[in-house]
Design a protein that fits this description.
This protein is α/β, with parallel strands linked by helices and 358 residues long. It is built from twelve helices and 17 strands. It has helices at 2-9, 16-25, 53-68, 86-93, 111-120, 192-196, 213-223, 240-246, 277-286, 297-303, 306-320, 326-341; strands at residues 14-15, 75-80, 102-107, 127-130, 138-145, 154-159, 162-170, 183-189, 208-211, 226-235, 237-238, 250-254, 257-259, 270-273, 275-276, 289-296, 351-357. α3 crosses α4 and α7 runs parallel beside α9 (277-286).
Length: 358
C-alpha cells in the first residue's frame, strides 16, 4: 500500500494502530473505504446478514430498554458500525411498541457503505446516516455489533523485560516484485497509556495481546451521546489471560479466506481481533455506566425468546406451505437462522454486554 510506504519512509516505525487505521480506513485505498466487508464483496458475514431474525431479536431488546426508561416519546437508537444498514432495516420492520418514538441513527465511516445504506434505508423518514457519532446527549441506546474488534488496536508482546510494543517498520531490503515482505515488526518500549490497558499478569515469554486503544476511546466518546440509556456491545471477546495463553486472536479476512499476518495485504484484507474484556469493562465504568449483564449471544437471544420466534415461524410455514407465500418462507428460515446465531462455536459464542448509564 503506497500510503503506508510513504509514511514509513519518513518514520522509523509506526504503531500497529496507525498501520491498521490506514489499511482499513484510508479514503483512497482502505479496506472499508472501498466498500469491502459484510456488504459488497462479502469478505465475512455478521449476524444481521444471516437473515431477518437477528434484527427482530434486537428490536425486542430495544423495546425492553425503551419500556425500562418509561416509554419516552423521543428515543434515539445509535447503531455504530452499521455496515450495509441491514440491522437497522430489520429493527424498523419489526414494528415494536417503540416504532412511533424511535429516531434511528446509523454511524458508518465508509462512504461506500453509507451509499449502500441510503439505498437500503431510503424509505424510512426516521433514519439519519452519519459518518461519526453525533454530538448530542439524549435518552436512548447505542448498539455496537462487531464494531469493537475493528477499532484500531496496538499489539503487546511479553519479553524477559516485561511487556513491549510491537510496531511496524518498512523492510529496507524489499523491492517491488520480489518475494520479501514489504513491512516488518519491530519491538519498542510500551508507554504508560498502553501499559494501563494491559491487565496485571505475567504470561509466558512471547505471548501477545491486543491493546484496545480504539475501543477504550470509542466507549468514552459514545458515553457522552447517551445521558439516560444503555449500550449493547456484541463481539467475539475473551479475558486477557485466556487470549495470551491460546493466541490466535488476531486474524484477517480476504475473499472469504482467513489469514493471520496483517502486514501482507494492507487495504485488501480486514484486520480484526478478539476483544479483551478487561479494559472494556474498565472503560464502561469510567464513563459512568454499570454493567447490567455479560453473557453469550446464544444465552442473550434465548432470554429474548428466540425459541418462541422459531416456533412461530414453523407454525407460519406449516400454515402457508401449500401457498408458498413470503411469510411462510420467512417462517421456514427461522430455525436455520437461529441455529447459526446461537452456535456456541460461532456467532452464538460472542459476548454480549448490556451496560446502563447511572
Amino acid at each position: 500500500m503506497e500510503l503506508l510506504r510513504e509514511i514509513l519512509l519518513e518514520a522509523e516505525s509506526i504503531s500497529f494502530s496507525r498501520f491498521m487505521e490506514v489499511a482499513l480506513y484510508d479514503e483512497a485505498g482502505g479496506f472499508f473505504a472501498r466498500g469491502r466487508g459484510p456488504s459488497g464483496r462479502s469478505d465475512f458475514v455478521t449476524s444481521p446478514e444471516t437473515g431477518s431474525l437477528f434484527g427482530l431479536m434486537v428490536g425486542k431488546a430495544i423495546e425492553s430498554l425503551w419500556l425500562a426508561q418509561g416509554s419516552p416519546e423521543d428515543f434515539v437508537v445509535i447503531e455504530a458500525g452499521a455496515g450495509s444498514g441491514r440491522l437497522c432495516r430489520e429493527v424498523l420492520r419489526s414494528e415494536r411498541g417503540f416504532s412511533s418514538a424511535i429516531n434511528y441513527i446509523t454511524v458508518e465511516r465508509s462512504e461506500a457503505l453509507r451509499q449502500v445504506q441510503a439505498e437500503t434505508l431510503g424509505r424510512y423518514s426516521n433514519v439519519s446516516i452519519l459518518a461519526d457519532l453525533p454530538d448530542l446527549s439524549t435518552s436512548g441506546v447505542i448498539i455496537a455489533n462487531e464494531l469493537l474488534d475493528n477499532l484500531v488496536f496496538d499489539i503487546a508482546e511479553f519479553t524477559s523485560d516485561g511487556w513491549a510494543e510491537v510496531r511496524v517498520a518498512l523492510n529496507a531490503d524489499s523491492a517491488i516484485g520480489d518475494s520479501s515482505p514489504e513491512f516488518l515488526e519491530v519491538l519498542a518500549p510500551l508507554d504508560d497509556f498502553r501499559s494501563s490497558l494491559i491487565p496485571d499478569f505475567a504470561p509466558q515469554i512471547g505471548a501477545r495481546l491486543p491493546i484496545q486503544v480504539g475501543a477504550f476511546e470509542w466507549i468514552a466518546r459514545a458515553a457522552t451521546s447517551i445521558k439516560d440509556g444503555a449500550m449493547i456491545l456484541i463481539d467475539y471477546a475473551g479475558n486477557a489471560e485466556d487470549l495470551a495463553r491460546r493466541g490466535g486472536w488476531l486474524r484477517t479476512y480476504r475473499d472469504h479466506l482467513r489469514g493471520d499476518d496483517p502486514l501482507l495485504y494492507p487495504g485488501e484484507a480486514d484486520i480484526t481481533s478478539d476483544v479483551v474484556l478487561d479494559p472494556i469493562r474498565d472503560a464502561l465504568i469510567a464513563s459512568g455506566f454499570r454493567i447490567e449483564s455479560e453473557t453469550t449471544q446464544a444465552d442473550w437471544l434465548s432470554g429474548l425468546g428466540i425459541e418462541d420466534e422459531v416456533a412461530t415461524g414453523e407454525a407460519a410455514w406449516l400454515a402457508g406451505a401449500a401457498r408458498g407465500d413470503l411469510e411462510a418462507l420467512i417462517g421456514r428460515s427461522r430455525a436455520t437462522e437461529a441455529a447459526i446465531l446461537t452456535d456456541p462455536l460461532g456467532l452464538g459464542g460472542f459476548t454480549v454486554i448490556i451496560a446502563r448509564s447511572g
